[in-house]
Specification:
Blueprint (H helix, E strand, L loop, with lengths): L18 H9 L7 H30 L4 H27 L10 H22 L1
């Protein structure tokens, strides 16, 4: 049977010339759990760290420039904005731990962009 003949005299089909092709097709439903999810997790962590730095600089600016009502209102808006972004990022980082993470929903993407823009605008208001 090694030469491709069966015991009844008929020939067996030729072996697949590219056996790796079938192995790769078997893996296609599950994505490679390689470095891409790790890079995405690290990007979310870096962005969260940047937002934390922006929030702490806003607090520092408030304390050094003197506490006035506008600065307190801006700082009172910066903290929950940063916490909201932190929650979004944490949820997305945890979602990346599965072999096939869900696609980032438009609602989450819009919320992340809104938090980023709000922090930028509030930071600009602190510099007034």
């Amino acid at each position: 049977m090694a030469e491709g003949k069966r015991t009844d005299g008929t020939r067996t089909p030729d072996p697949d010339p590219d056996p790796d092709r079938n192995r790769n097709q078997d893996r296609s439903p599950n994505r490679d759990p390689g470095l891409q999810p790790e890079r995405t997790r690290l990007a979310w962590r870096r962005t969260t760290l940047a937002c934390a730095v922006a929030a702490s600089l806003a607090g520092r600016q408030t304390l050094h420039s003197g506490i006035d009502p506008v600065a307190l209102v801006v700082l009172a808006l910066v903290v929950p904005t940063w916490l909201a972004f932190l929650a979004l990022a944490h949820r997305r980082i945890r979602a990346m731990n599965v072999p096939r993470p869900p696609v980032l929903s438009p609602r989450t993407a819009v919320a992340a962009v809104a938090c980023t823009l709000a922090l930028a605008l509030l930071g600009a208001a602190m510099l007034r």
